[in-house]
């Protein structure tokens, strides 16, 4: 067992180094010395994961029973060992490719995230072809585990070779107890009586930055240790009675009065649309030569109210809708897949339905994808239009969803159909083609520039598809009475060094297009916008008259108490922006201060000069209040405007 265990430790260490090199763009500050430290620390997590995975084999190999010494018994142990450990190697290798999309090691939430998928086989086959180098590496590791497995017994042992029972059973009983204690200590990460078992955040002691913990960890460990994950713990920054006075997520407690403006609302959630892909926001880059990959959206931005700094509140598709439509940013875990996902929310679709709106959600993927259908239902969308309702598989990309161009034409026709009913409407479409497997329809194979990475071509195709949607609805009488809102769900794969940092990974386009002139044309360089601001800003534009819940703000507010902030979080590494300053906060500790508008790449940490920033105490106090409000309200299921 020890020989085979050492083999697995080598395999896991090779996976760690491959993980680092494959994702080196996310770890540009990691030196060779840092890697050695993290690798040494990673051994503890590898031992822990392997003890969990091989608990049954350890028991079987050390039980004080003579039947262990038969070839048949050892064949059973070998089969169990190979099945369990090949599975462990596979999930560990899979995260090498998946990390760039999730930004963290996979946890047990993966079972919730993809548990309802109807086309997992197709997605898995595509991942093999799309990341064949990674999977080739995985095959080599699996082959090593199989071929180098050490089988201690090939033939049954002669009974005469055994020691007398009075010696055999006591000796082997002691060996079993020692092995069990070693395995138990390996699982916990040590034998200290006062130490807690290792958790994911334990890896941070070997890192300079929290996100580097992904190098230290391994995926079997993160999955196993989150299978029975507990909820948030109240940080107790402030007394409960003073918390609302610092930051209150209840909005519109004293409405302005007057009639509600029942404008139509159309929201585009654009899959993986990073701000870095768009020429409009990057006109000064590369000496003014950067054109981007979104000519139509650039032209639309020139007629819209946009923001120079727009931020996602999460890093996955499932983080977007809770933020945009229920005011719930991601904090450490995806809301939809965490323990509190059954909490009662006050969703924008339901609020507008109560005011007489028709509401509908559109997404061209299978209806089980990522649990969207269940979530949209929980926040008040009346109808869900997915791949099933589209009903024509000739436009299916073969892996993920209906191609954007035909699906957005379908969306345009359905929107017009809804408009003809005479009621105000709120509809949302979630585009899909700018997603792995990065495919465009065959007729466009030579149409769109391939750019520097595969994502660029599908971004260009998605941009074209959105342009065709507006061509389809041109001249419709409902258009001038409509607010069009555009946001990305999260950032896509980056290829620009200036965006490859803790700010750049969250920068997305968020803008409002009002053909009827309800908003001025402007690119706002002072006010900051985030996904959680979408609902408050829309409700402000509509002059909504009731209280509601949101961690965001109305970016169009003229109130003198307006706070120009953004809050987002990357797996416990929280960031708070106020006007021109950004702070980073993790583990109840401030560890980063940046003047991000002057230092776009976040190269200059001003932590040592913190006394020069008088706004810092306010910022830290606000951030801690947001975190405490988030945690306590999640635990107490208080995510609506009802008083505590």
Characterise this structure.
The chain has helices spanning 2-22, 32-53, 55-62, 71-102, 110-114, 120-130, 132-147, 165-188, 213-216, 219-224, 240-246, 295-301, 317-326, 348-353, 372-378, 387-390, 404-419, 454-473, 534-541, 616-636; strands spanning 250-251, 264-270, 305-307, 310-311, 358-363, 383-385, 425-430, 482-488, 510-513, 522-524, 529-530, 548-549, 565-570, 573-578, 581-586, 589-594. It is an alpha/beta fold and 644 residues long. The mean pLDDT is 91.
Based on the model shown, name its key terms.
16 strands; Alkaline Phosphatase, subunit A; 8-stranded mixed beta sheet; alpha/beta; 20 helices; 644 residues; 11% strand
Secondary-structure topology with pairs:
Elements: H1 2-22, H2 32-53, H3 55-62, H4 71-102, H5 110-114, H6 120-130, H7 132-147, H8 165-188, H9 213-216, H10 219-224, H11 240-246, E1 250-251, E2 264-270, H12 295-301, E3 305-307, E4 310-311, H13 317-326, H14 348-353, E5 358-363, H15 372-378, E6 383-385, H16 387-390, H17 404-419, E7 425-430, H18 454-473, E8 482-488, E9 510-513, E10 522-524, E11 529-530, H19 534-541, E12 548-549, E13 565-570, E14 573-578, E15 581-586, E16 589-594, H20 616-636
Parallel strand pairs: 2-7, 2-8, 3-10, 4-11, 5-6, 5-7
Antiparallel strand pairs: 1-12, 3-9, 8-9, 13-14, 14-15, 15-16
Helix pairs in contact: 1-2, 1-4, 1-7, 2-8, 3-4, 3-8, 4-7, 17-18
